[in-house]
Write a structure and sequence with these properties.
Blueprint lengths: L3 E4 L8 H15 L10 H4 L7 H12 L3 H12 L15 E6 L7 H8 L5 E6 L6 H4 L1 H17 L1
Parallel strand pairs: 1-2, 2-3
Helix pairs in contact: 1-4
Length: about 150
């Protein structure tokens, strides 16, 4: 791997509390009720700056997720190992990207991962929560263009 960009995500294993919450969602999804767990996301996972149109867009996207897909994704995240040490093995640029208002992708965690490599940069997308591509696509595109240029030059 020559370069790495992580966006709106964690590479650490879930805490016990996070894993327990995922298990609740998995159980709900298995009964066809998983989307109930996501019903507050348009209010809790987006930036306060998000427009009503963006909130509605997220509602529609979440409604379209198949229960089996939701269950699978939660199982995968609940069972993931920590990959924090992987940043030490990458010789090229590493961009750790989060929305400035993301409630789940903590700035402190990304900063700690970034300290593991001199090539890492913590980049924040302004006026965005957990869905940066939906909330502020132009700012995200600018960061990704910079990453691409840095990766090509590496």
């Amino acid at each position: 791997v020559r370069a790495l960009a992580l966006m709106d995500t964690n590479i650490a294993a879930d805490t016990a509390a996070q894993r327990a919450r995922r298990q609740e969602i998995i159980a709900q999804a298995a009964q066809g009720q998983g989307k109930i767990a996501l019903s507050d996301w348009p209010e809790t996972m987006l930036s306060p700056a998000a427009t009503a149109e963006i909130r509605q867009d997220l509602r529609l996207r979440l409604a379209a997720i198949p229960e089996e897909g939701l269950k699978w994704a939660q199982e995968a995240m609940a069972g993931r190992a920590s990959y924090e040490a992987a940043v030490e093995k990458i010789s090229g640029p590493i961009y750790l990207i989060r929305g400035s208002d993301d409630p789940t992708c903590a700035r402190a965690a990304l900063a700690a991962w970034g300290e593991r490599s001199a090539n890492a940069q913590l980049r924040e997308v302004p006026a965005a929560g957990h869905f940066t591509a939906l909330e502020n696509p132009l700012a995200l595109a600018k960061i990704l263009r910079e990453f691409y240029a840095a990766a090509r030059a590496a």
